[in-house]
Amino acid sequence: MALTISQKCKNIQPSVTLAIDSRAKQLRNMGLDVIGFGAGEPDFDTPKYIKDAARDALDAGMTKYTPVAGTIELRTEIQEKLLRDNNLDYELTDIIVSTGAKQSLFNALSAIIDPGDEVLLPSPCWVSYPEMVQMAGGVPVMVKGDENNGFLVSAETLEKYVTDKTKALIINSPNNPNGSVYTRDMLEKIARLAIEKRFYVISDEIYEKLIYDGEKHVSIASLSDAIKAQTIVINGVSKSYAMTGWRIGYAAGPKPVIRAMTSFQSHTTSNPNSIAQHAAAVALTNGERFMHESHTEFDARRKLMHSLLNAIPGLSAAMPKGAFYMMLNISGMIGKSLNDRVIKGSDDFAEMLLESKLVAVVPARAFGDDRYVRLSYATSREKISVGIMRIAEFVKECK
Ligand code: PMP
Ligand code: GLU
Q1: CA within 20 to 30 Å of 197's CA: 32, 168, 178, 386, which one?
Q2: pLDDT digits over 17-47, tens only?
Q3: Contact between 109 and 120 (Cβ < 8 Å)
Q4: Which residues' Cβ are closer than 6 Å to ligand 2?
Q5: CA of 250 to the centre of ligand 1 (A)
Q6: Are 119 and 360 in contact (CB under 8 A)?
Q7: 212-239 burial string, b = 16+ CB within 10 Å, else e?
Q8: Pick from 148, 340, 338, 51: which is nearest to 349 by CA?
Q9: How far is CA 31 from the centre of its chain?
Q10: CA dist., res. 112 & res. 362, Å (int)
Q11: Residue 269: pLDDT above 90?
Q12: Per residue in 221-240, pLDDT tens?
């Protein structure tokens, strides 16, 4: 037998968001003054009360295996959170905790996808969705959003892509990469379609708390018992509590799906980290103050980044309603060049900007639209001002 890499893994593209983040961190470690608008990671430290909880967990000896689906303590907090914030009533056995929302998503797809099953992905979408669908044996079906409506995808548009192989739809609201938020009305129509055509909805609500201008987050699962019965809600503590490195995410959904996800997890990673589980439980109980403060700061950064970007001739960015990302339209830069290199698409723009001005952004080709780059405003206002000044210089120098 040849010592080859499996077909499945050969086709996987490494995560561009994580690759750019690690390149920016590497350059920074070399002493270079890099401004990172790359990965979506809050720059705040994890709040002290959460770190204290982790110390308490260690002191109390919470260092052993926990139930595969997570501790009763954490699942109870999640159960209360889903009821309090989302009007969703789940039993503890309808909830599973995993090593980040990323693993929750992969477990969910693995639990429902058979080879060849199609998964509808409103696009542009987060880089990991199409790869995860393929890793689970499915076929990603990209459904382009309406650019004039924040890239949202309506039920009418989705319906055109539904086939007898459609197994699921992934809805991500507030959205990565474009910051759009689905309205209740749009979700009601999507729910009706999902019920009629009988496909699952995976509702990725990781940016739920990062929502602005009075917009309201609606979980599609909360719209009726019928849609709840075929929806898997995904959430986690990474973004809301500045806990990206702790790796705690969770899913709630129909019992057979959660049971399958638990069996799957029992043979892959077992329970998520025991200490992080206790810290996440405490985060969910006492998080309101931290979330209020960070929300105010993110909102100020959003407005600052939006006004500075739109002041650069030739570039434009729509005002996002949620998450902490902004899509910068760079179509006006295509065909221009700097030092004999031509900008042919978002990869060139991002690479040239990083090399010449030490500013990291994510090429939106990775999200399915080459006319944009994505900027994360999960960084200080000072860095936003300096970074965007450098982008303005870069644009001026490109001829
Ligand atoms: N969903 C989306 C849309 C994301 O942007 C992220 C970011 N990492 C995740 C899920 C996963 O979050 P985590 O694994 O850190 O909980
Ligand atoms: N989700 C974040 C992003 O899109 C973090 C990196 C990742 O997991 O992709 O930048």
Answers
A1: 178
A2: 888 888 888 899 999 999 999 988 899 899 9
A3: no
A4: 15, 17-18, 39-41, 126-128, 176
A5: 11
A6: no
A7: beeeebbbbbbbeeebbebbbbbbbbbb
A8: 338
A9: 30
A10: 31
A11: yes
A12: 999 999 999 999 999 999 99
